[in-house]
Specification:
2 domains, about 30% helix, OB fold (Dihydrolipoamide Acetyltransferase, E2P), 9 helices
């Protein structure tokens, strides 16, 4: 990070607005410098979350459809760039950027054109909808979308905390016009629960690809799981921990650089890639004790704690101690106890 190019005062203002829950009240981008400073710091952390999600999709053998990519609520455009870094600019016909802020859309478009020369980039809602006079403080609505091919990819990133119920409803209408939806939110209890609500409202029209290993109703919705939430942890690059400017960022914002929680949802109208028998997912951090570990696990049977005995599974217990366990696993269970576990198999090339 180039600390001399960062407007640290702007970062403090943006962080304060987020913590005060006032960021959704209006356009918080005041200048090009705001966006550049955000893109070098906060947006990088969001980009690492997208890297986590896209890497998991690759492990599942998921391939996106061809067509137009819409980065909705794009901000500085980090989600769209992360997608193109992973799948390549040739995987889409066009990148469309939409945000309530014209300044943000133009910034994101310029960064995309600089990084991917020759890529067609436009601002506005694209083929997903064509409202006659789109307000900049509300999402384009699905009923205005012209008829046409539905091979479209919709990216949504870190927006639910800023939307009111009516705006959320309109965004879900837009999502309903897509071929596939990739959605990433903060890994907080509130954002996760909101995203679970999105999943339940949209899953009848889509196949659930991730993070779930099933398409049934979310196991978090049973009363005994009310205190839990579906969240996971991305891993930031190691080099940021030796960068003095990232240390300054952490002190300024009060953010623990080691902690990168996220909630996410991937939906597709096409069939999901097949999963191995016994596929399950670890949610959050395991709880470690002297003789065993408790993992909040999710599979087709629901969400409940799984016990991993240290004597039975020594190598697996050591991996948990080192935070080296993958969230996606293949389990063999005896009741709620894990008697065997192995990493999720890599997809065939």
């Amino acid at each position: 990070m180039n600390g001399d190019a960062i407007d640290w005062t702007a970062l403090r203002r943006l962080r304060s607005a987020y913590l005060a829950r006032s960021a959704g009240a209006g356009d918080y981008w005041q200048s090009e410098s705001d966006l550049a400073s955000y893109d070098a710091t906060f947006a990088q952390r969001i980009g690492w979350k997208w890297d986590y999600v896209l890497a998991e999709l690759a492990r599942r053998g998921w391939v996106p459809p061809a067509g137009e990519l819409l980065d909705w609520g794009c901000g500085s455009g980090i989600a769209g760039r992360a997608y193109l870094d992973h799948f390549g600019a040739a995987s889409i016909s066009k990148l469309v950027l939409w945000d309530r802020s014209p300044l943000a859309m133009q910034f994101a478009a310029r960064r995309a054109r600089e990084k991917y020369p020759g890529l067609e980039v436009s601002v506005g809602p694209g083929n997903f909808s064509a409202p006659r006079s789109p307000p900049l403080d509300a999402p384009p609505r699905g009923e205005d979308r012209p008829d046409g091919p539905k091979h479209q990819i919709l990216l949504i990133s870190h927006v639910l905390p800023e939307l009111d119920p009516e705006q959320t409803d309109a965004l879900l209408e837009l999502a309903g016009s897509a071929e596939c939806v990739l959605w990433v939110e903060p890994g907080t209890h509130e954002a996760s629960r909101q995203l679970i609500g999105v999943r339940e409202r949209l899953r009848e029209g889509f196949n659930v690809i991730a993070p779930c290993t099933h398409s049934a109703s979310c196991g978090m919705l049973v009363p005994e799981n009310k205190r839990h939430w579906c969240h996971h942890f991305a891993v930031p690059p190691r080099e940021i921990f030796t960068d003095g400017n990232w240390s300054r960022f952490a002190r300024l914002t009060g953010i623990d650089l080691r902690d990168l929680p996220l909630s996410f949802l991937v939906l597709d109208r096409r069939p999901a890639p097949p999963l191995p028998a016994g596929a399950g997912r670890v949610i959050g951090h395991p709880r470690l004790y002297k003789a065993h570990a408790l993992l909040l696990g999710c599979d087709a049977s629901g969400v409940c704690e799984r016990k991993l005995n240290r004597r039975r599974l020594r190598a697996e217990f050591r991996a948990l101690q080192k935070s080296a366990t993958q969230a996606l696993q293949v389990w063999e269970l005896a009741g709620d106890e894990l008697v065997a576990t192995k990493p999720f198999p890599e997809p065939e090339p």
